[in-house]
Amino acid sequence: MSYKLSKSKINDYLQCPRKFRYSYINKIETEENEYFKIGGDVHQIAEDFIKLWQKDESIDFLDTLYELESKYEDDYKDHCIHLADFFKEKLTCEGYEVFSTEEYLFSEKYNFSGLADIVLEKDGKLTVIDYKTGKSKSARDYVTELCYYKMLVEDAYPDKTVEYAAIYFTKDGKYSELKFIEEDYSAVNCSVTEYNNKIELIEEVREKIEAGEFPPKRQYLCKYCDFKTHCDEEGFIT
Ligand code: SF4
């Protein structure tokens, strides 16, 4: 049986193979960091809101989000204000329908899993959207994981096509999307060639993991790494 991968695991391996080993092979536990908690809470608020909205489309967007937010100790009102605008725009102004929310997806073909935050449908085409609670960037910075969302959704629903994949940055209220197109690279598109390369990357990373290749990748992020002490003690030996 091949090693099971996920969007997060590939991202972690690409960021630093040694960090991946500490996390997934050695299973060294780390303290939950603040950003992880914010991400989990805001995703839960968004998911709960969508479920309520699916039951009753007349609910007030912001009031309902605030009510859900009030159950948490931390203050996520800024995220709620942006989510209210975003959901209102997509669901009432642009006429998208909710296809799925927080759906766990697994591709047997690639032995690969992921959790799609929200998938919207319009005119028979799907847009898969990931929420991020950190500082906004371009969707192109997330092209690898967005390709995996497309693959997972299309694998689960073979009669559907994911035309767009996007990130919604809940803290800044920014939406950035990529369109999947036949050819030609541009800042707002992902070509078939690029998409196929990203899918091939799954097997390449898996082969390296199975071969025990976990070299350290020194970078400026090392100073924030939870495993820095372990890594420093091990030195540069791979
Ligand atoms: S300290 Fe740097 S090189 Fe070491 S595991 Fe962490 S990210 Fe990788």
Q: Which CATH first-tier class would you pick? A: Alpha Beta
- Average pLDDT, to the nearest integer? 93
Quaternary organisation of the protein chains: single chain
Task: Sketch the topology as an H/E string, one letter per element.
Answer: EHHHHHEEEHEEEHH
Largest sheet: 7 strands, mixed
> What percent of the residues sit in helical stretches (DSSP H or I)?
40-55%
Specify the overall morphology: globular
* Small molecules held by this entry: iron/sulfur cluster
Kindly, what is the distance between the CA atoms of the first and last residues, rounded to a whole number of angstroms? Answer: 25 Å
CATH topology: Lambda Exonuclease, Chain A
Name the structural class.
alpha/beta
| CATH architect. name | Alpha-Beta Complex
